């Protein structure tokens, strides 16, 4: 039965076009993702009605009566062109195996990650994020394997990947997209160990998911509690990765007054911030910060009617307070 299901999954791919052509030629490179797909598809044949939307009422009725597996597959093959969506397959593939995701991952690693090579020759990758950002690390874990653990004494979690197949798969996906010079040095050591040619990145452009991942690592979106000014910023110890952002997204880079050893790229102009909002719609944040990004348009809507200046007893002021509480709580 499993072989029959696998054969029909392959047949199914020809009808879903680009969503399934993203499955790697070598299954071993993404065996965790492939395993998830196999299990999902096996489940789909048992209870197809809950996982596949079919226009043909005859097929829907037949599948809903729990017909034998071979009969379900026959009906599915016969009426495959009527499928509207297959979420158990297409969503995972579309979300994870595309170039913009790999760019996002490279940006995240440039900000919060480290490639490590021990004295004994063991290679690994670590990414440390705020505990609210577990979702972002779970996505990476689901694709490449690895583990996620709480850091002792800190409000943070750490993702660690050390098994060879998963690490080599990840390196293949981000090679040519890493921009942090320190990270390139780290990556080169592992590439040398495994006879992989290190690829240097092209010049950063607007149409690149790298900034989204870099923002998830080291960015902030805040409202000044004194003057209610909205800003988006990214901090780094050097200005190397920040200066190119000025040409693409506007803003300025300056030495952070809070720490003389760090730099910050910073935008406050409405048109520049809305340009970034538009960018994040194409290249989404995967951290908790996305919740604040989704509130930016509401912020300007309330600011335009001066809700932040309204008398405390008014409904307008209550609207602002309600919005601001959601902002503070990342809701």
What keywords describe this structure?
331 residues; alpha+beta; Endonuclease I-creI; 4-stranded antiparallel beta sheet; 16 helices; 8 strands; 51% helix; disordered N terminus
What does this structure look like?
Keywords: Mitochondrion. With about 325 residues, this protein is α+β, with helices and mostly antiparallel strands. Among the domains are: about 100-195, Roll (Endonuclease I-creI), CATH 3.10.28.10; about 210-330, Roll (Endonuclease I-creI). Helix content is about 50%, strand content about 15%. The strands form 2 sheets. A 4-stranded antiparallel beta sheet has the order 1-2-4-3. Strands 5-6-8-7 form a 4-stranded antiparallel beta sheet. β3 and β4 form a beta hairpin. α1 (about 1-15) packs across α3 and α7 (about 100-110) packs parallel to α11 (about 210-220). The longest helix has 16 residues, at about 30-45. It is elongated. The two termini are about 45 Å apart. The model is unreliable at about 1-95 (pLDDT under 50).
In short:
With 331 residues, this protein is α+β, with helices and mostly antiparallel strands. The chain has helices at 2-16, 18-21, 31-46, 57-64, 69-78, 87-96, 99-112, 134-144, 164-174, 181-193, 210-218, 243-249, 270-282, 290-293, 296-304, 315-328, and strands spanning 113-117, 123-130, 147-150, 156-161, 219-223, 230-236, 252-255, 263-267.
Into which percent range does the helicity of residues fall? Answer: 40-55%
**Content-based structural category:** alpha+beta
Number of helices: 16
Listing every helix as H and every strand as E from the N terminus to the C terminus, the arrangement reads: HHHHHHHEEHEEHHHEEHEEHHHH
Query: How many DSSP-defined strands?
Result: 8
- Which whole number gives the mean pLDDT? 79
Largest sheet: 4 strands, antiparallel
